[in-house]
Specification:
Blueprint: H1 2-8, H2 13-20, H3 51-63, E1 67-74, E2 80-83, E3 89-90, H4 96-108, E4 117-121, E5 140-144, H5 145-154, H6 158-167, H7 171-180, H8 192-200, H9 213-220, H10 223-235, E6 240-241, H11 243-254, H12 261-272, E7 290-297, E8 300-301, E9 304-305, E10 308-315, E11 321-330, H13 335-351
Antiparallel strand pairs: 1-2, 1-11, 3-6, 4-5, 7-10, 8-9, 10-11
Helix pairs in contact: 3-13, 4-7, 5-6
Organism: Sphingomonas immobilis
Protein name: beta-lactamase
Domain Beta-lactamase class A catalytic: 69-327
Length: 356
């Protein structure tokens, strides 16, 4: 009985709360004014460019006698190596890339088709390299946008390029594309006729498009006039572009950020079938690698050349890609040494590539 009495005297708070409706302890609530520090998030470390490649590019640029810019961008890792890559240098026919992209951008928007018919006439002829001129029969040649695009990129045909330029709206349309896509430090000139005549110190005349009339007219100029025009162009090229900007644009092209997938593949495949510059960067491409590119070559004055370029996309067997721009704005060195510089840049990229 004593045990029962003691048990009956035990105070059970659970029974009290239940029996008498006493409030339960409130659950813990965070003070809304209490400062909560964010949990630090780990950020991936940026991939560094290969030290060996950085040193190689630096050495190649410093040891070359001329105004040179080199840019190498890893399309996959995102790093960029540059020597003189922020200075605008003459593009010459490298600028045909921007015409081609503007054409394909218009195609993506449904404003034109590659099989749109175009007729080339004598009035369309420009100057220097224009193989399509030999196809004119009775003063004309019937073709398509696609054929002109192929010829402009793979043969660097000036007439094909300028006809496409007019077809898409002229230099203003290309400049609009460059600005809209935020391609950076890239200028676009007035087209081959005006670009080449201004560089030579001439005012364009239609008869310069035939035979060697342009070369003869240029030769008749006083040497002082030619030199002044040449120096003015090299110092501030109306078609100038920074190698870094070109390499970045090529990387974005390869990643599908500038054109539709179909137009991207079309353009890169066309660049890979290019027939120009076999002794420039292409000469150093090893077996198993692919390379799509566009060359550019300016006028000579004595031993100097106003623009000697090669830019392109180099792809390794494992699929990793590099956008490369080697631009020689002015140099007295012979073509063989210019070509060797370009080959050495490619060889350095390949030597420092990691195959995994």
């Amino acid at each position: 009985m004593l045990t029962a009495a003691l048990c009956a005297c035990v105070h059970d708070t659970r029974l009290d709360h239940a029996a008498y409706g006493a409030p339960r302890p409130a659950p813990y609530q965070r003070n809304p004014y209490q400062l909560v520090l964010p949990v630090p998030q780990s950020t991936p470390r940026p991939v560094q460019a290969p030290v060996g490649l950085t040193r190689a590019i630096d050495t190649l640029a410093k040891n070359f006698d001329g105004r040179v810019g080199i840019a190498v961008r890893s399309i996959d890792a995102g790093w960029t190596i540059s020597e003189g890559g922020d200075v605008r240098l003459p593009q010459q026919s490298v600028s045909k890339l921007w015409v081609a992209m503007t054409v394909l951008d218009a195609r993506d928007a449904g404003r034109l088709r590659l099989d749109d018919p175009i007729t080339i006439t004598k009035a369309d002829l420009t100057v220097f390299h224009q193989p399509i001129a030999y196809l004119l029969k009775n003063g004309e040649y019937k073709t398509t946008v696609g054929e002109l695009l192929q010829r402009a990129l793979t043969m660097s045909d000036n007439t094909c390029n300028d006809r496409l330029l007019r077809y898409v709206g002229g230099p203003a349309a290309v400049r609009s594309f460059i600005a809209r896509k935020q391609l950076g430090n890239i200028r676009f000139g007035p087209g081959e006729r005006l670009l080449q005549s201004q560089t030579a110190g001439l005012a364009w005349r239609s008869e310069y498009a035939f035979g060697n009339a342009f070369t003869l007219a240029r030769a008749r100029l006083p040497q002082s006039a030619r030199l002044a025009a040449f120096e003015s162009y090299v110092a501030d090229p109306i078609d100038g572009a920074a190698p870094v900007a070109i390499a970045d644009a090529l990387a974005r092209l390869k990643k599908g950020q500038l054109l539709s997938d179909d137009s991207t593949h079309y353009l890169i495949d066309t660049m890979e079938s290019s027939k120009t510059g076999r002794y420039r960067m292409r000469a150093a491409i090893p077996a198993g690698w692919t390379f799509g590119h566009k060359t550019g070559t300016g006028q000579d004055l004595g031993r100097r050349t106003a623009g000697f370029n090669d830019v392109g996309v180099l792809t390794a067997p494992n699929g990793h890609g590099y956008a490369i721009a080697v631009m020689i704005g002015d140099t007295p060195r012979p073509p063989a040494e210019r070509q060797m510089l370009m080959q050495q840049v490619v060889a350095s990229v390949v030597a420092n590539h990691k195959p995994y």
